[in-house]
Amino acid sequence: MAGARWTMHWEEAKVFDVNAVALGVDELDLMMAAGKALSQEVGHYTNNISQMGEVWFLCGSGNNGGDGFVAAEEFLATHAQNHEIQVRVLATHGEQKTLASRIVRARLIEGGIPIHVWDSGRWSLPLPTDRRILLLVDCMLGVGQGGPGESALPRGCIAEVMDWLDSRFEVGFPSVLACDVPTGWGSSRTMIADWTLTFHSDKIGLTLENGNVAPGIGPIRVAELPWPQETVDPGPGDLIRYPPLSSDAKKGDRGRVLVVGGGPYHGAPLLAGMAAARMGADLIHVAMPENAAQRADWPAEIIPEILPDKDHLSIVSVERIVERMEAGRGVQALVIGPGLGTDDETIAAVRRILVHAASKGIPTVIDADAIHAMPIASWPVDLVGVATPHLKEFKTWMGQVSPYEMFTEALKYSLWKTNGVDEENAALICTGELDELFGLGARYSVCEGGSPRMAMGGTGDLLAGAIGGLMAVGMSPWSATRLAAWLMRRAGEMAETELGPGMVASDIPLYLAKVLAQRLET
User: Fold this and answer.
1) Does 236 reside within a domain?
2) Are residues 188 and 323 in the same domain?
3) What is the pLDDT along the chain (522 residues), one digit of tens a residue?
């Protein structure tokens, strides 16, 4: 599975860039590599045409625009003797938002390459009206738009420039090469591309469910970036996908988590609940059979849900749990399994709860004893969520079937769409000295590091709770699993530094919050 490529979420491009920088790659080197690849694509096109004319690089204010600046400079350098092709750089904004793109823009200016800047409805330098425009290179937004759909609708200067282009080329629009993804892709205002150069792998929305390229994308070419192989593993870049806090947030906006566990044990579900709370979820409910609940020392931030069962979960409690899942605004994540035990009645009850969660689309973490309720080597149809087996549980559940095979079947029999955001709906993390993460669409990565002391009991419950908390605040199962795995290992390192080998599982939730806060500030 090493080196697996999957259809990337647009935000993963930023995640991997940050991870690469953390691994020692210079951000400017990434931009140079992308720009050179883009320049080569332009060169292939111009080498195959005989007309005289111009190539216009349309550059936005972010890193996509920076790629365009580099490509324009590279193209000029490599085609300087071809006087039949001229280059113009058109910038949608007067300044760049990112350091790397500011550097390459300044280098263009220092090299005497003029930049036409959009300003108050006009270009700062006049553009010719008597020249044939052979190609527009669309570097206005790229994946900086956030994702395909109306959220990518061009606004402000970008929208104005698109209006101007429509007017300027009312008859005979030039060919368009899109950098990474076309501007406004998936919205009601899209820059239609004749072909698209994207980086590392395909992006969601560019290819249809049937495998055909979406209309308006043209043939897709993929260029490599100088990312170390470990770039696609969980890292600090995964924090980019953590949903930001809203200044006008109200209680419940950050989600409600329901942890179902306990019976033979009472500490495990509480640990899961504490980790979920430290991920920023607003409300944490823990449901336990009565006797386990009476033994528990309930933290103030956890809301007890005492089940009618006495010693272990059974069918008797399913109705109560379903009521909690549907009451009010419902629950935004379910964590089931910590400390449950494997009584036959318990496993039967878990199966009913999983069926209900799947029918309602409730993101679910299947942990510990609840994994015994999963169908052998199969993923429950349409269940959005994450399974968190350790190696022994993984082998018992999966047998000789690979996660890749299981998730391929899951996509086949589900209502989920391939090559889109649905491919982040399910994940599996096999925990151990090295965590292995598997997902739909051939997703695969590993997570390592942390403290040897994390081999103690309770850390699996913490991981399950952390994933549940992250899903409750709005992260997908795949992105939540990646971030939780990374946070757990960094929290273990921090806790060991401060507490030494005497740290215990209940120490870790505070350090989860500290790592989250520390990294969000940088």
Assistant:
1) no
2) no
3) 445 689 999 999 999 999 999 999 999 999 999 999 999 999 999 988 877 899 999 999 999 999 999 999 999 988 755 567 889 999 999 999 999 999 999 999 999 899 999 998 999 999 988 889 999 999 999 998 778 888 889 999 999 999 999 999 988 899 999 999 999 999 999 999 999 999 999 999 999 999 999 999 999 999 999 999 999 999 999 999 999 888 887 888 899 999 999 999 999 999 999 999 999 999 999 999 999 999 999 999 999 999 999 999 999 999 999 999 999 899 999 999 999 999 999 999 999 999 999 999 999 999 999 999 999 999 999 999 999 999 999 999 999 999 999 999 999 999 999 999 999 999 999 999 999 999 999 999 999 988 888 888 899 999 999 999 999 999 999 999 999 999 999 999 999 999 998 999 999 999 999 999 976 554
Output the pTM of the full model. Answer: 0.95
220 with 261, same domain: the answer is: no
Question: Domain range holding 80?
Answer: 10-228
What is the rounded distance in angstroms from the CA atom of residue 216 to the CA atom of residue 184? Answer: 11
| Number of domains into which the chain is organized | 2
Q: What are phi and psi of 141, to 5 degrees?
A: -130, -50
Residue 418 sits in the same domain as residue 366:
yes
Please check whether residues 263 and 178 belong to one and the same domain.
Answer: no
Which residues lie closer than 8 Å to 195 by C-beta, 6 or more apart? 41, 177, 178, 217, 218, 219, 220, 221
CA 137 → CA 64, 81, 183, 193, distances in Å? 11, 21, 11, 9
